[in-house]
Design a protein that fits this description.
binds 2-acetamido-2-deoxy-beta-D-glucopyranose; Jelly Rolls; 688 residues; mainly beta; rhamnogalacturonan endolyase activity; Beta-galactosidase, Chain A, domain 5; disordered N terminus; secreted; Immunoglobulin-like; Carb-bd-like_fold; nine-stranded antiparallel beta sheet
Length: 688
Amino acid sequence: MAAERSCGRRPGFQGGRSLWMVAAVQFLLLLSISARKDISHGNVKGRSSSRTEASTGHPVNLQVTKDLVVMDNGMVQVSLSNPGGYVVAIKYGGMDNLLEAHNKANDRGYLDVVWNWPEESSKIERVAGTKFSIITQTQDIVEISFLRTWEKSSAAYVSPFIIDQRYIMRRGISGFYYYTIFEHQKQWPAFRIDQARVVFKTNGEQFQFMAISDYKQRVMPTPDDRTTGKPLAYPEAVLLTHPSNPDLKGEVDDKYQYSSESQDTRVHGWISKDPVVGFWMISTSDEFRSGGPVKQELTSHVGPTTINTFMSTHYVGREMETYFADGEPWKKVFGPFLVYLNSDPHQGNYSALWEDAKRQMLIDAESWPYNFTQSEDFPPSSQRGTVTGQLLIRDRYISKKDLWADSAYVGLAAPGEAGSWQTETKGYQFWARADTSGSFTITNVRAGAYNLYAWVPGTVGDYKYETTVTVTPGSLIKLGSLVYESPRSGPTLWEIGYPDRTAAEFHVPNPSPLLLNKLYVNLKPDWFRQYGLWERYGELYPEDDLVFTVGTSKYQKDWFFAHVTRNKGNSTFEPTTWQVKFELRDVSPKETYTLQLALASATFSEIQVRFNDPKMGKPLFTTMLIGSDNAIARHGIHGVHHFYSIQVPGSYLQKGSNTLYLTQARARGLFEGVMYDYLRLEGPPNSL
Ligand SMILES: *[C@@H]1O[C@H](CO)[C@@H](O)[C@H](O)[C@H]1NC(C)=O
Ligand SMILES: *[C@@H]1O[C@H](CO)[C@@H](O)[C@H](O)[C@H]1NC(C)=O
Ligand SMILES: *[C@@H]1O[C@H](CO)[C@@H](O)[C@H](O)[C@H]1NC(C)=O
C-alpha cells in the first residue's frame, strides 16, 4: 500500500503526452490521482486515515450557514444555496466565480425538468431543494444532499417526484461530482415528463471559447449577438449581423449545431480569457441516459451554457415522451458526472486544457462506476454484473456460413420490442461495441431484467434476443453464440446506401455561403450540421424531382440526404416524388418481391411507395404519418430509425424498365421530410 501510494500514478499517466504540462498543473493532477488512491483504501465511510502531506492536498472543508453551503478543498470552492441546492458560485484559478454572477442565484447552476399533468400544457420547473443534509464528511470527501419531496398542495408547479440532488467534493480533485435520484411513489398521480437536465451558465465576459470535441472548438458569439442578429426560419437559428466580435459577422449560430450522440458526449465545456481556466462537463457513462448510444442531445452552446441532459425528446419527438401511470412506482439515478476545472496559468494554452480535460475523462472512465458515492441507489462495481456473447449474422443470400457481426452495437435495455431501446426512458441502458468477430462484453450492468438488443453497421434491421436476461449482483452471464437473421426474402436486385441508421453516406450539399457556421467549413463529415441545407434541394431540382438510375447513379452524389418538400414561396409547400429507375431481365408475376426500406429520420411525413404507375390512386404501401424527430431542422444526420419490409407482388413489376416512385406526401412546412438510411429491392425467395 505504501509503495502504491508513493507511486501515486495510474498507468498511462507518465510519458510524452504529459510533458506539455506546466509544473504546477502537473503537480495538481498528481495530487488528485494520489488522493483517489487514498480514498480507495477504505476511508469512504467516515474514518480518517493517516497520510503524508505530500500525497494529499488540503482536506475538504464544509461550511454551512443559513443561506449558503460552501465546500472547499483548497483548489476549488463551490457555494450552494441552502436549502435550494443551486450552484451559486465556483471559485477557482484566480476567479471568484466561474459562473455568471449577473444571473439570479437560481440561474447559474441548476437542475430543471419539463413535465405536465394529463391534459395540461408543459411547464418547466427549476428544482429547488427544501432540506439540506450532510451525507458524509471526512477530510477526504464531503457528500451533501438537497432534497425536495412532493405534496398535493404544491402540485400546480412541483413535479410529482422526490428529488435528491447530491454534490460531492473530494480531496485533491479539481472540481465536484453531482448525481440526482428521482422517485415517483406508489400512491402518486399520473403525469408526463419530457426532459430533465443539469445546466451551468458560466461568466459570459470570460468564457468565449467552447470545445466539444477534438475538432469542434471555436470562439462563440454572445447572447446579445443573437439578439441583434437576424432570426432565421427555424427559431433557434440566428444570422449574426452585428456581433460584438466582428470576426463572427455573417455566421449562423444555432445550439443544435453542437449537439452530439450520447456515445460521443464524454467531455465538453468552455475556456476563459484571463485568467485562462477550463470549465468541463465530464460524463463518462451514459447508462442513465434515455434512448441508447446514438440518441442526440445538446452539449454546450451560446450562453455560455453547458448542459448534461438525462432525458429529452430532442431528435426523437413525441415517441420519447415519458408517461407515468397513476400509482406507478419508479426510481432512477442520473449521473454521477464531474464538473472539472483546470488551468494553465503560465502559458494560457487552450489545447493543453482540452487535452488535460480529456485525460481526466479517461481517468474517470477507468474508475466507473464510482465507488465513493453514498447512495444505496448507485451500486458499486461489485453489485453489478457482466454479460458476454458473440453475435453472428445469418443471411443465406450473402453467405452459406453465419457471418461475424463486426462492430455490432449490443446493449441491454428494458424489455420491449426489437428497437424499443431508442425511445426507452425509464430504465438504464448498457451498451458495448462488438469486436470484428462479433464478440461483446457488457460490463457494470445493474442488477435487473433486460432484453438484449443489437444492430450491426452494414446489416439492416434490429436484433432482439428473445430470452430475458436477468443480471444479479456479481454475475457473469455468458450467452454464447447468438444468431441474428437479418431481414431478407430473396437475392439483392439493387441497393441504395449503407445500412447504418444515418443518411451520412448520401449527398450532403454545399451550404449556402451566406449561412455558414465556419467551424464546419473544413469538417466535411460534419457538413450536415450547416444551416439551411434543406433549401438546397429546390436549387438542385428546381422543376423536376430527383431521379436515381440504378447502375449509373451513385448514391454518394446523386441521392440527396433528405427527402424534403418543395418550397413554392408564400409559405406554401408541395409533396415531392423521387424515382428509382431500374431494369429487370425477367419478372415472375406470381411471386413476391421485397423492398427493404430503412429510414434514418422522419418528421411529420408519409412515404408512399408505388411501382411503375405514379398515378396509382392507392399506393402499394404507405408508412402513414410518422415521426416528429425534427432531425432535418436541427442538423442531425439521423433521428429515429424506422424499418419496413414491403412486399411487392411480381405483377407490379415488368420485364425491362421499371420505376419505383417514393412520394413524401405531407407538405405543410419547410422542415417536413425523411432521411433514408438504406433501400434494397429483393427478388422472390427460393431463387437462391
Ligand atoms: C499547447 O498544448 C498542446 C497540447 O498539449 C501542445 O501540443 C502545444 O505544443 C502547446 N503549445 C504551446 C505554445 O505550448
Ligand atoms: C475505488 O475505485 C478506485 C478507482 O477505480 C480503485 O482504485 C479502488 O480500488 C476502489 N476502491 C474500492 C474500495 O473498491
Ligand atoms: C403571395 O401571396 C400574396 C398575398 O396573398 C399574393 O398577392 C401574391 O401574388 C402571392 N405570390 C405568389 C408568388 O404566389
